[in-house]
């Protein structure tokens, strides 16, 4: 799968996921990139803190509908724990 982990840049050039530095890609940069699922799975560590917060928030919003109270561990993680972690992480980032 290593050979399928390429990212298409705004100028139509390709760059392998491993060529990006960890925590180096902002929201603005990320929004201009195109990639397949193989690359996207490996790209998360490349996002800076703000891009990671927004990406996690987006992923959570795309999950199945929440039924209160959470009846499974998966629902609790997705709809209760991750949003709380995101909120705390965002506060920590903003305090820097």
SSE class = mainly alpha
Work out the number of β strands: 3
Estimate percent helicity: 40-55%
Q: Identify low-pLDDT runs.
A: none
* Oligomer category: single chain
Give the count of structural domains: 2
Radius of gyration: 16 Å
What is the CA-CA span between the terminal residues?
38 Å
The fraction of residues in strands falls at: 5-15%
- Secondary structure tally, helices: 4
Order of helices and strands: EEHEHHH
Placed side by side, the strands forming the largest sheet appear as 2-1-3
- Shape annotation: globular
Main beta sheet? 3 strands, antiparallel
- Average residue-wise pLDDT: 93
Describe the structure.
The protein folds into two domains: 48 residues, no CATH class; 34 residues. The longest helix is centred in the C-terminal third of the chain and has 23 residues. A three-stranded antiparallel sheet has the order 2-1-3. Helix 3 runs antiparallel to helix 4. The protein has 96 residues and is mostly helical. It has four helices and three strands, in the order ββαβααα.
Q: Can I get a quick summary?
A:
The protein is built from four helices and three strands; from the N terminus they run E-E-H-E-H-H-H. It has 96 residues and is mainly alpha-helical.
Any key phrases for this structure?
96 residues; mainly alpha; 3-stranded antiparallel β-sheet; 50% helix
